[in-house]
Amino acid sequence: MNIITVKINGVEYNLKGEEQEDYLHKVARHVDRKIQSILDNNPKLSTSSAAILTAMNAVDERLKEQEKTLQLEKQLEKAEFEKQEQENSIASLKNSLNNEKKIRKSLEEKIDNVDLDDSVKEKEEQIKKMSVEMKLMQDTARKYMEDNNLRKAEMKDLKFQLQSAKYKIMDMEKKLLDSQVNLAREKKQRNALKVNNL
């Protein structure tokens, strides 16, 4: 327990407190300045009236600060809630993206395993289906960007993944074209063999 002597409005007071001496002196100087300010503006006031006005002003300031603190706490709670919602939306989008990756991988495997004897129409349907799914992925990402204002780094990652998927579709279209060429070549060879066998 610290005991110090302070002077307020020319009168000495003994203060006891757990706080440091510097802090207690700082409080006393603040109170002294406030009382002096009130007395300077109202010279006819008594010391006790000035002290009461100082106390009223101090309580007023304290209550206003408490109100500000409450408002800041509410704003902080709201910000935390919005942050949580955004994190949930990001997690949901990542989950959707992972599902789309699985679907794309499955389709890629199907395209890789297609025989030359399979019809060209079936391959084209697979490409169309993949294009529709990629469009859905793009629309989902675009909608999320507009609704939730994704962070730039996450947006860059999504754009990269979408661009990568586009290149894979282009590669699959090339494979389809190669398959069509090989199929045509094989048909030509079969026709040539039939002619030779005749």
Explain this structure to me?
The chain is mainly alpha-helical and 198 residues long. The chain folds into 2 domains: 2-76, no CATH class; 89-197, no CATH class. The chain has helices spanning 21-41, 47-112, 120-148, 152-197; strands at residues 2-8, 11-17. It has a two-stranded antiparallel ribbon. Strand 1 (2-8) and strand 2 (11-17) form a beta hairpin. Helix 1 packs across helix 2, helix 2 runs antiparallel to helix 3 (120-148) and helix 3 (120-148) runs antiparallel to helix 4. The longest helix is centred in the middle third of the chain and has 66 residues, at 47-112. The mean pLDDT is 81. Its main location: cytoplasm. One of its GO terms (biological process) is cell division. Residues 56-189 form a coiled coil.
Strand and helix order? EEHHHH
State the helical fraction: over 70%
Count of separate structural domains:
2
Tally of DSSP β-strands:
2
Shape: rod-shaped
Summing up helix and strand content along with how strands pair, one would put the structural category as mainly alpha
The biggest sheet, with number of strands, parallel, antiparallel or mixed sense and barrel status, is: 2 strands, antiparallel
Global Rg: 39 Å
- End-to-end distance, in Å? 118 Å
Strand content: 5-15%
Task: List low-pLDDT spans.
Answer: none
Strand line-up in the sheet with most strands: 1-2
Q: For the residues shown, what is the average pLDDT?
A: 81
Number of helices: 4
Protein name: Cell division protein ZapA
Subcellular location: Cytoplasm
Subunit structure: Homodimer. Interacts with FtsZ.
Pfam family, one: ZapA
